[in-house]
């Protein structure tokens, strides 16, 4: 149970792989810009009780492997990460202000994939062993 996190009314282990890219795939994430982006991402994650398990910043995209609490939507987390980093960095670095004059440093989309200790097949097998009348979704006691 040591890999599980605890909330006030929950025990959880929600791991996600997140990837997002710079607009126009510009290779801007290096040096001071990369350091500032990392600091902003860490601060945003800390504010929302998101644990960064692993991270990698390439010149034109970011990979994060995180553990999120169940009360936080993935879309809300991505909105916060992209919005906060974009505004702060465009205001701080004149190079970015010139390149992203529309104030959008990141593309609209992102990649998200969940990860866990058990596979989909294991969960399906467990549910199948619970004696079922309806193959897709059963009601216990019927």
Model description:
With 142 residues, the protein is α+β, with helices and mostly antiparallel strands. It contains four helices and six strands, in the order βββαββααβα. The strands form two sheets. The chain has a four-stranded antiparallel β-sheet with strand order 4-5-3-6, with helices on one face. A two-stranded antiparallel ribbon has the order 1-2. The radius of gyration is 20 Å and the shape is elongated.
Short description:
By secondary structure, the chain is α+β, with helices and mostly antiparallel strands. It has helices at residues 31-47, 74-92, 94-99, 120-128; strands spanning 5-6, 11-12, 15-21, 51-57, 61-67, 111-115.
Biggest beta sheet summary: 4 strands, antiparallel
**Can you count the beta strands?**
6
Q: How confident overall, as mean pLDDT? A: 86
Whole-angstrom Rg: 20 Å
- What order do the SSEs take from the amino end to the carboxyl end, as H and E? EEEHEEHHEH
Q: What is the top-level CATH class?
A: Alpha Beta
Distance between the termini: 33 Å
> Strand arrangement, largest sheet?
4-5-3-6
The percent of residues in helical segments reads 25-40%
CATH superfamily: Transposase IS200-like
Uncertain residue segments:
none
């Amino acid at each position: 149970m040591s890999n599980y996190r605890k909330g006030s009314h929950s025990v959880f282990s929600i791991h996600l792989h997140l990837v997002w890219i710079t607009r126009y795939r510009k290779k801007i994430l290096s040096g001071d810009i990369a350091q500032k982006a990392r600091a902003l991402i860490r601060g945003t994650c800390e504010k929302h009780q998101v644990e960064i398990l692993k991270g990698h910043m390439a010149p034109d995209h970011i990979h994060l492997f995180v553990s999120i609490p169940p009360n936080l939507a993935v879309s809300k987390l991505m909105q916060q990460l992209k919005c906060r980093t974009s505004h702060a960095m465009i205001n701080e670095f004149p190079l970015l202000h010139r390149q992203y004059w529309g104030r959008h440093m990141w593309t609209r989309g992102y990649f998200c994939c969940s990860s866990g200790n058990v596979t989909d097949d294991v969960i399906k097998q467990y549910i199948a062993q619970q004696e079922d009348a309806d193959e897709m979704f059963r009601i216990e006691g019927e």
